[in-house]
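Structure ticket #2291
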Amino acid sequence: MKILCVTPNVAVDRTLAVPGFAAGTVWRAASVSASCGGKGVNVARTLACLGQRATCAGLLAGHGGRLAAGLAEAEGLDAVWTWIEGETRTCIIVVGADGETTVINEPGTTVSTGDWNRFVDDVVSAANGADAACIAGSLPPGVPAGGLAGLIAAAGAGGRRVWVDTSGPVLAEAVAAGAAIKINGPEAGVLLGRPVAMVADAVEAASEIRHRGAVAAAVTLGGDGAVLVTDDGVWQARPPAIAVISAVGSGDCFLAGLTAGLLDGRPPAEALRLAVAAGTANALRIAAGYVDTDDLARILQATEAKSVS
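Resolution: structure written out below.
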């Protein structure tokens, strides 16, 4: 099986461990790392940890883009990049104490309509031979109206399932385009105009998202796990309690686990259980989009999943 992981707004992620961090003074980092970032890249990274084949696709520009491409290559991530003018963004992740993480995301370089159309064409080519696709993260400035819907159609050409994890105004576009949707509770709340904090809220939200056009919907709730709604039913999974190091990338790991589990033919409850365990395992590490297989095995054993009537 092969999964195409599309990141419209790739970044160079700089992660700094700064114990005790707080705004308003000078700090020295205990450790610093740089990686090719963006939600879709994190999904691909996690799929590699799970033993799955993945190809990254995304927009890159300038010196930052060359750095991001080199970092991805050094990791062994397969990639097909679309190069444009400008400069790929840098995002700063500061990991403090007790799982408190501060993330500063740059908006990304502005794309032209021609850039975006070329990117969509490249995604069509990259999707050849893929069994499923994930489109994850924000869109860069300048994407034309209907641009995400066009990208979803390109990634799903031939009938492959496309999962989308995004937020803000374009989330409604993804839902209406008939994608499968993975979002967290706050994102679902913004889309629907009401709080989504409890499991019952998430079930109602996922059901409404499907009613609006999505073929499937998963809503994550952090330590309370996640729910999944498809044509075949409604499921809930909950992980064991852990001491969180950094939750950055946990949603991406969840999406990787869910996509891989469903492609492998696992029943929906088991695919959801794998997804929740993968997202939880990521929170035990500073590195975003990384799952240690020993952590995963231990957490998977303690993760519960059930059908919700």
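Closing remark: The chain has one domain: 2-307.
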